[in-house]
Amino acid sequence: MSVKLIVTDLDGTFLETYHTLSQENIRAVRRAREQGIYVAAVTARNWSACKWAVTQTGFDPLCVINNGAAIIDGTTETMKFENTIPAPAVRGILEAAVEAEASIDVFAGLFSLEYGPTQLTREDKIKWREDWEKKPKEYQPVVEVYDDLEKMIERASDVSENITVHGKDLTELPGWFYRRVVEQGEFYLTSSHTGCIDIMAYGSTKREGVQRLASMLGIQREEIIAFGDNSNDIGMLKWAGTGVAVGNAAPSVQAAADMVTARNDEDGFAKALDTLIF
Length: 278
Description:
Radius of gyration: 18 Å
Distance between the termini: 11 Å
Strand order of the largest sheet: 8-7-6-9-11-10
Number of helices: 11
Largest sheet: 6 strands, mixed
Structural class: alpha/beta
Shape: globular
Strand content: 15-25%
């Protein structure tokens, strides 16, 4: 197999936990790069939230972020591609989310905005913050918190690449909410984790992000291995020459993959590369 590009989701796939890296996976990345293979992260996170993982792992500079809505050069922190949601649609989506009593995260390339009650328990929230605070300041996420919807809409209007809406108490959002979203225009909707919906501008998916990255690098789809675990990874797994699902992936993701490897907390990424390349 001639492999020139390896792309991998982070949460639930490459990382052991949200805040924990697999040393075996890191060694696999470095071994692949030594063989001249480009290795890139493809994540629903924005740059400030994935910078730590990408930098500490030793991935190559280009990174597909915000579910495919943007590509950033992590070395210079410059955007190579951005696909933002039109300002009028941002307003309509955020107003509908508030009516649904949902909480909102708006992700731009280099920072994020928050509105509404947290969907974490008090204990989880404390642990989440403590884990981030253990990392150097330059790796901590840049987050702006709003309690005034109009101010958040004003800030989000021209920078929204991914709007993540969490249903009240992490339950499914009501049907009318989706109708309101569709009324605002054409979008790509997916879900990066339970109880939420991710909304991006049309043309923003992980698959299209990987296609753009491959085009930038002059690499063909047959020369790509892609790793994932969740429904938002299915498109890139099917499109890549070889799609690999980790053992903890949803059944639909495993069904879409060419190969199923070990779980994310069992170094599945490294074990798959041992079989496919090394």
